[in-house]
Amino acid sequence: MRIASCLLGSALAVALSSGPAVAAEELTGTLKKIKDTGTITLGHRDASIPFSYLGGTSREPIGYSHDLQLKVVEALKQQLGLPELKVRYTLVTSQSRIPLVQNGTVDLECGSTTNNVERQQQVAFSVGIFEVGTRLLTKKTSGIQDFPDLKGKNVVTTAGTTSERLLRSMNVEKQMGMSIIAAKDHGESFLMLESGRAAAFMMDDALLYGEMAKARKPDDWAVVGTPQSFEIYGCMLRKGDPAFKKAVDDALVATYRSGEISAIYDKWFLQPIPPKGLNLNFPMSDELKKLIEVPTDKSAEEM
Amino acid sequence: MDYNWDWGVFLRATGIGDEIYLDWFVAGLGWTVAVALAGWIVALLLGSLLGVLRTLPNRWLSGLATAYVELFRNVPLLVQLFIWYFLVPDLLPEPLELWFKQDLSPATSAYLSVVVCLGLFTAARVCEQVRTGIQALPGGQTAAALALGLRTGQIYRQVLLPQAFRIIIPPLTSEFLNIFKNSSVASLIGLMELLAQTKQTAEFSAHLFEAFTLATLIYFTLNMSLMLVMRRIEKKVAVPGLIAGGK
User: Fold this and answer.
1) pLDDT, tens digit, 9 for 90 and up, residues B106-136
2) Where a domain ends, among A171, A202, A230?
């Protein structure tokens, strides 16, 4: 496997770098690939509401992160002089997103991917596009107000998320005796909560509001608790491609500076959204306001 | 491909207590074995019973076993698991439902669901092998046993089944290995078996290829060893001259 991937890697490297080696001013890396093929491949999610999900009328993804992704595409059209730039969509999962960016299947992935130090070893991140706090979704009648109330309870979270890591550490360090369920995706986590298997669901607050909006009776539920961590979402791209990263960052920062970001935010968090026409009513947090004011590609832990 | 390989990742701290990633794999392997073995016991007992039923002259009993096989063999395993885990508990009487969902630890309720699911699913397949094992025997054996005055139960216990089980050891081995591989569906209902731990390691460490490579090696080694054990058993129980298999 190692040899095969090395061979593949070097073949790819030769294919990608043969041009720029002779003429330094020419486009390199992903920008060159986009220019040469006239196509950019965007990665999207299927159920990260309201960031990147399927649920609109067409088969194309929709969402907050998706709109920002399209801003990048617009900017690339200008920069590369490619008004006809074609966009291809590839559905990624939380497991497949990193390898698909690395192996060149996906050029840019904007969904609900947390920028963290472990992932930075594998991929590069754009400036942050969102900031969430990890909190709890619970029934209003459950009596759970904050994390200490979880002692001895069943708590669900989605497998492989930062919330899972925090919850497991909390359980060990504070000896809370929680039973932790790791469900395979946010939808299933909510199912565990709704069907009474778990007393609370720990996750990124924005996603909790998204799940709440999907519930049969949204009014029965509440997002509670002090955020246990803040996380910055970013768009993923290949490492070691500064020209493409700059193009992506510039496009995002321009969207922040021009104030268009407010309209995009309102559209997804303060107005009814597909598929059910529910309103998340999730006002912009101070953390996100700060992130938009001072864009950064650092992870929240590094700040 | 621009991938940052690091095989030392398994010895690194996970950030939870003082566990390292390798501990997760060990714990995961434990669940995998526990699920597969318990499922296999259910499958072997129920499958043998159904296999015998299918060869009985009684039309109702054999029809019942046939219906069972068709039902469990034709519905995807994952669908069956979701039915056992999400639907069946809701159909139980309320005290039992609450006990299953809230008093049992989540790992136990997931474990019970997956053992029942894998056991019943695999039983359908074991049943077919037991049936073919019995039917592969010359009809004259039953006739001779009847002529000796043996009752049906005696014929099965003393004449047919001892031979049939010897014949079907190779296909049973592959079912036995299948149940270990199929146990990975448990990862989808939150049971932290080997595949779930692998995915978790991949997510937490961002070293996906190393994690899946290790999981592949563990599954492979586990199944190879089981296969060798089964081969020894096959040789050990072989009756010389009875069947041609097991060279």
Assistant:
1) 899 999 999 999 999 999 999 999 999 999 9
2) A230
